[in-house]
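Session log. Operator J.P. requested a structure for one protein chain; no other inputs attached. Running the standard single-chain path with token output.
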Amino acid sequence: MAVAIVTGSGGLIGSESVRFFAEQGFDVIGVENDMRAVFFGPEASTTPTSEVLVEEVEGFHWEQLEIRDAESIATLFQRHAREIELVVHTAAQPSHDWAASDPQMDFTINANGTLNLLEATRQYAPDATFIYTSTNKVYGDRPNFLPLEEHATRLELPADHRWYEGIDTEMSIDLTTHSLFGVSKAAADLLVQEYGRYFHMPTVCFRGGCLTGPQHAGAQLHGFLAYLMRCTVTGAPYTIFGYGGKQVRDNIHAHDVVRAFAAFHANPRPAAVYNLGGGRESNVSMIEAIELCRQISGRELDYTLSEQARIGDHRWWISDLQAFKSDHPQWRLTYGIEEVLRDIYEHNAERWAAMAQ
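Structure written below.
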């Protein structure tokens, strides 16, 4: 039986990957040690998700391993060497703000952990497709120097700008402020590319915008759409950091992310790099997202505007999806921004409301 290894298997993209690839006939090994609870507190714990996956997904095996432990990772890969066909690496420390509180842990998880996985793959399963969930934060704050225009509810590029339809991978990652999180993810991104080129391994970096969906735990420091809807439902206060709430993000549902993984695995190549987000089909400013949350939930959000933006945060980001669509024409987005928010609300509103009582 073909084996897929999924790191961060209790998280948003990891859990979606487990279910999808198990349905495709893989034996799926999830590597998950619930570091989200360490980063963001017990409410963000992935353990409940992992326990549900064990119960519901046939062929799923949960390994509570630490990706920083090179020996344990190598042992796991050696044990399944002949069967491993796919590695989906979603485990990470995912927050700008948290990274600054412990830079060494952030870097060793994001960079060294990725190196451990790449080396184990090279040693024991070099033909396996290696999929890495990178981030658009590898570009640092360079998007903030685009000639943005201020509109009533959002910042926007002029329609004749080369990146109006979305930013492509030709944007430089150099000479910018990345945040420490962006640096650790960029290091991992470059490692994945180099293993692809140097060792001729089928690797891909998906530089994600905002990846989201109903499974997102949603915390103040990570997962803004889920946290925004959660605050709207529960009445908890929300803070918008900088830019008058007009900063723009493209948002892609976990369902569409994992189908992109599958499309690449069906036609892999060494050292591929793609920007992956909602593109022009699914993007929103903070102010626009708040209004959608109000319309969907029937509740008002208690929010304040802070003039202090987070270091390295983007004023505007929309991904250019054309490169991936050209290489994998069978893939397309199936969720727009309103569908994403409705899905988050419908799956979580009752539970969130009960928790707030």
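Operator note: The radius of gyration is 19 Å.
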